[in-house]
Specification:
mainly alpha; single chain
């Protein structure tokens, strides 16, 4: 299993148009699903990892907050990374 870093997810999110939306409730078209597919991870695999308290759990929580557009998601990820660096 590939274990991505939050910075890699941020790179993916920032490669999208800031005003492009994603459907959080659809596993394949949500931000995490699109990212997982881009790095060769199948839906069932990343969803299983999410339940184990990993990167995927954090990424999914960030993707589910606020508006479901890539620009605001990138801002949430940057804030999360900043807070994690201080902790």
């Amino acid at each position: 299993m590939i274990h991505p870093e939050m910075s890699e997810f941020l790179d993916f999110v920032e490669s999208k148009r800031p005003d492009e939306d994603y459907c959080f409730s659809e596993a394949e078209s949500c931000a995490c699903g699109q990212y997982a597919a881009s790095i060769g991870i199948m839906r069932g695999d990343w969803m299983k990892e999410m339940s184990e308290g990993s990167f995927w759990q954090d990424a999914n929580a960030l993707a589910g907050q606020g508006s479901h557009y890539f620009g605001p998601l990138a801002a949430r990820i940057r804030q999360h990374m900043k807070e994690e660096a201080v902790a």
